[in-house]
Amino acid sequence: MSSLRKVTSETILRGISLLKSGHPVSFPTDTVYALGAPISDIACVAKVFEIKQRPLTMALPILLAEAADIGLVALHVSDVAKTLMREFWPGALTLVFKKTPFVPDIVTAGTLTVAVRIAAHPLAIEIVKGVGVPLVGTSANIHGRPSPTTAQDVESQIGDKVELIIDAGKTPGGIESTILDMSGDKPRILRQGAVARATLEKFCRIY
Q1: What does each of the 207 residues of the chain score in pLDDT, given as a tens digit?
Q2: Range of the domain at 93
Q3: Are 27 and 127 within 8 A, CB to CB?
Q4: Which site from 114, 133, 142, 143 is most exposed, i.e. has the minimal number of CB atoms within 10 Å?
């Protein structure tokens, strides 16, 4: 039986319930379809790695519901970082910070930093808010294969491994987020994505 369901209020509530009970769920963001799990549920996060066939040495990004939650997962949020959050969140900019003890090592692959953003998609925000804790929000694909922009893409890759894929149509972006490292003294781009370097440089110097 297919795990794909059209987005309805009932489907959203089921997705939130599944996440709270330890089952990863796929849902759309503004960039690609994500595979989510509560960061506080280590077993559920481990399932995300297993489903994606992703090495445990590769950290997972985190999705927040609102910028006010940043203190839960990130240390030393600079004024420059706060400016970038105001300008680009919700949106396709992932910021890397030193992590707090609340973030389990499995999420960050044992490193001291964590990648965080707020997706500019009302469904993603509603789901994170409904679960009540930040979610890992990695692309819902088999590791090394194309990132999915439709629920059907997700179903073709991991449909037999997840209990629910919430179908809200094609994602508006289709390009993964830009990752900007704010954990050191100088902002550095780790991955060029939807937000251009020139756009970021209007707010800070990039190294």
Answers
A1: 789 999 999 999 999 999 999 999 999 999 999 999 999 999 999 999 999 999 999 999 999 999 999 999 999 999 999 999 999 999 999 999 999 999 999 999 999 999 999 999 999 999 999 999 999 999 999 999 999 999 999 999 999 999 999 999 999 987 889 999 999 999 999 999 999 999 999 999 998
A2: 4-200
A3: yes
A4: 143
CATH number at residue 132: 3.90.870.10
Domain count, the chain: 1
Retrieve residue 189's tokens: 């781009």
Contact present, 96 and 181 (Cβ < 8 Å): yes
